[in-house]
Amino acid sequence: MRLHKKFFLVSGISLWTLAVVFALLPVWPHVYYRISPRASETLASTIAYTVTEEAGPINQPSISPSPTITPMPTPITKPLPDFDPSLPDKNGLIIDKIGVRGELHEGSDWKNILRQGIWRVPNFSTPDLASEPIILAAHRWGYLEWSASFRKLNSFYSLPQLKIGDKIKVVWEQREYEYTVYSTETGTGITDYKANIILYTCQLWNSPVRYFVYANRSN
Fold first, then answer.
1. Can you tell me whether residue 199 is helix, strand or coil?
2. Where are the alpha helices (DSSP H) in 91-142?
């Protein structure tokens, strides 16, 4: 009888321990970022240099300005969407499926820009042009000072949830461009520069693995 009681006690404790571990797994990164604020700064640098590190023999574009770089052309024959004065006058990204609705920030000062939210990587395209893809990057967990609501709207925390066929919208100069996801992957760098738009974020901590989403314009 005592052996049975001991068995059930140990089994119960083990099951509760496993339940707690699995319950905490999704929130552990958030806890880690709160107890280690410098982690966000470290990840900012890895996000910033993802495209640069992937520049290879096919002469892919780099983050750093260089007159010798020849971007891969991505012709878009579709006309510009209609101008809509009711749209925000600030350029932004909208991904309804994962609740993203944030402003696009420009420039090469990635240390400060990634702290503000979504970064359009410089030296690549804008929606109204078609010489190379638009590349957007953002943190998954963000910074200690970010509120939960700001993180929801401006981080790429849920980017891995996007699937083929999902829609991405970019508001650019009060015109709304819609893109359809055709491919997603994890890896250490971009593998398809033929997409009209590429989104990426880090997978976890200082891991070299990134989540990538590739989409083409659909409107």
1. strand
2. 110-116
pLDDT tens, residue by residue, 88-102: 999 999 999 999 999
pLDDT digits (tens, 9 = 90+) for 46-101: 787 787 555 433 333 333 333 333 344 445 568 999 999 999 999 999 999 999 99
Q: What's the token pair of residue 70? A: 């020849």
Q: How far is CA 144 from CA 21, 141, 163, in A?
A: 23, 9, 29
d(CA 59, CA 108): 21
User: How many residues are present in the chain?
Assistant: 219
For the record, the structure tokens of 15 come out as: 């099951």
Six token digits for residue 128: 């109204």
Domain count, the chain: 1
Instruction: Tell me the β-bridge partners of 175.
Output: 172
Select the more confidently predicted residue: 77 or 190: 190
Domain that holds residue 172: 28-61+78-217
Nearest to residue 219, comparing CAs of 79, 113, 94?
Answer: 79
Paired tokens of 103: 């402003």
Please state, in angstroms and rounded to a whole number, the distance separating the CA atoms of residues 98 and 167. Answer: 10
Give the CATH number for residue 53.
Answer: 2.40.260.10
117 in helix, strand or coil? coil
